[in-house]
Amino acid sequence: MKMSLLTNKWYTKEKRIEQLESHVVKTRTAKFGFTSYAESEKIQRVNRHFNTIASRYDMMNTVLSFGIHYLWKQKAVGLMNIKPGDKVLDVCGGTGDMAGMSAAKAGKRGLSIVYDINWKMIGQGRKKKLKDVSFTQGDAECICFPDNSFDAVSIGFGIRNVTHLETGFREIFRVLKKGGTICCLEFSRPENLFFRHLYDIYSFRIMPVLGKLFTGSAEAYTAFPESIRAFPLPDELSRILKDIGFRKIQVKKLTNGIAVIHRARK
């Protein structure tokens, strides 16, 4: 496969709109990777994905990112300016990496909760026995906590898996206290074209092979890079946050834009 063909896997602006709630509701279809599913079926598809990889999730993140994902998460948590006693929610929190970092800042008087829909991922997180971290199973589109409950909410590498993206952000807005901070860490498109070529080769030639080797599923690690290439770019995501009501939106690109942090206030 030529480099140009790999680069063409990045969705155009018109195609990225297919990730937005208006398109999903209108067409009754939702994307997971490049594959379309019935709107009501995406959540089951996402659950199957994480059921397949849960036991190797942390290890694969470290292998595939060469350990850099920990630095990205630390940077994101640092930008939330968590103080001792703060209440922090990590939506789509998986095995609890970011919640553990938040708990270290909130301390014993604070609260750090992982909120995730996948029971196997939660199970893996509980095995880690993270200090001062609790786990709650639930849907990001219908968060079970009351309005104005949290001083800060993080969502790391999870929002692109939510069927109705804007609904997920609206729920985060709802549970945040006035003045509270959201920190969204997500993958994006590298800025440098040559680096993007290398990243595409790695994503579509090497990543599925490693996925097959370590988890037994090449498909899971094909859908993963596909979902990144279909996701809104940083400026598009900023507009979504602004439309929902978030203010003081800041964007920080990491590792040439492979990962991007959106920080905003309610």
Describe the SSE topology.
Layout lengths: L2 H5 L5 H4 L4 H7 L1 E4 L2 E4 L3 H12 L3 H9 L2 H12 L7 E5 L5 H10 L4 E6 L2 H9 L5 E5 L12 E7 L8 H11 E12 L5 H23 L4 H10 L4 H11 L2 E8 L4 E7 L1
Parallel strand pairs: 3-4, 3-6, 4-5, 6-7
Antiparallel strand pairs: 1-2, 7-9, 8-9
Helix pairs in contact: 6-7, 10-11
Average the pLDDT over all residues and give the rounded result: 94
Main-sheet strand order equals 5-4-3-6-7-9-8
**Largest β-sheet summary:** 7 strands, mixed
Tell me what the CATH architecture is: 3-Layer(aba) Sandwich
Number of strands: 9
Distance from N terminus to C terminus (CA atoms, Å) equals 45 Å
Describe this structure in words.
46% of the residues lie in helices and 22% in strands. By secondary structure, it is an alpha/beta fold. The chain has one domain: Vaccinia Virus protein VP39 (Rossmann fold, 3-Layer(aba) Sandwich). The N terminus is likely disordered.
Main features:
Rossmann fold, 7-stranded mixed β-sheet, two-stranded antiparallel ribbon, 12 helices, 22% strand
In short:
The chain has 266 residues and is α/β, with parallel strands linked by helices. The chain has helices spanning 3-7, 13-16, 21-27, 42-53, 57-65, 68-79, 97-106, 119-127, 165-175, 193-215, 220-229, 234-244; strands at residues 29-32, 35-38, 87-91, 111-116, 133-137, 150-156, 176-187, 247-254, 259-265.
